[in-house]
Every structure is written in structure tokens, then in C-alpha cells.
Amino acid sequence: MLTEFGKILIFLILGIVFVIITLFIYKLIRPNRPTFEKQKVYECGENPEGSPWVKFNIRFYVVALIFLIFDVEVVLLFPWALTYKEFGVYGFLVGIIFLLVLGLGMAYEWRKGDLEWARPTPKAPKLDDILKRDA
């Protein structure tokens, strides 16, 4: 007699075996005709320019993570908006507290400057410019 964990183990093993067998059959029957065009890097239908090993600005990842965090939190507001009346004042206050925390997080990110795509680079004054201005 199998336990529940045994059934899960058998299910996982069968899933892995199915994937391996499918990939093996696919490798046997697929056509293999590489060409120069097929081997090129694809960039949305445009011819690639430069090296594919370009370093991205870390700001892209920061903005993407902030978007995901706030997007998931906003998605949690829909069930609350549909059911808060069932919980009365308690449900309403919990939602308001959630919105306040969300607003504080957004204000923090805005104040920190992480919501701006490109920060302006500060220009340090040069001694020559100061002397020319004062003369």
C-alpha cells in the first residue's frame, strides 16, 4: 500500500520520464538543417547591431522589480474590494491599512528616485567656470 508521499513520488518520476522520452523522440524526428539565417541572433525582426553581450543598466531591473511588487499588491485589492463589506468595519480598516502601507512604499520609492528611468548626472562646478563667471 502506497502512502500519499509515495503517490507524489511516482507522479514526479512519471512526469520526469515523460519529459525525457518526449525530448528524445523529438530529437529523433526533427529536421536538422541549420543555415546562416537560422543561427543569427534575433532582435524583433531587426538586424542585430553590436555585441549581444551588452551590459544593461541596473535601473531596468530595479524598475521591473518595483513594477512587479506594486502590481501584485494592486491585484490583491480586487478580492478585498469585492468582499470587504462581508467583514464589516474590520475588513474595511484592514484594507485601508494595506493601502496606507502601499502608499508609503510608493512614496519611499518615489522619494528615493527609483521610479525615474534615468537620473540626471550631477555636474560638479569647475574652477575655470567659476573664475570666468566672477571676472
Structural descriptors:
mainly alpha; 135 residues; flat
Blueprint of the fold:
Blueprint: H1 4-29, H2 36-39, H3 58-75, H4 77-83, H5 88-112, H6 127-134
Description:
The protein is mainly α. The chain has a single domain (4-112), classed as Methane Monooxygenase Hydroxylase, Chain G, domain 1 (Up-down Bundle). 65% of the residues lie in helices and 0% in strands. It has six helices and no strands. It has helices at residues 4-29, 36-39, 58-75, 77-83, 88-112, 127-134. The longest helix is centred in the first third of the chain and has 26 residues, at 4-29.
What's the overall geometry? flat
**CATH level 1 class label:** Mainly Alpha
Task: Please work out how many helical segments DSSP would assign.
Answer: 6
Question: What is the oligomer described by this structure?
Answer: single chain
User: In the CATH hierarchy, what is the architecture at level 2?
Assistant: Up-down Bundle
Low-confidence stretches: none
- Whole-Å distance between the termini? 96 Å
Rg, nearest Å: 28 Å
Question: What's the number of domains?
Answer: 1
SSE ordering: HHHHHH
**Topology, number of strands:** 0
Instruction: Quote the beta fraction.
Output: under 5%
How does the major sheet shape up? none
Helix-and-strand structural type? mainly alpha
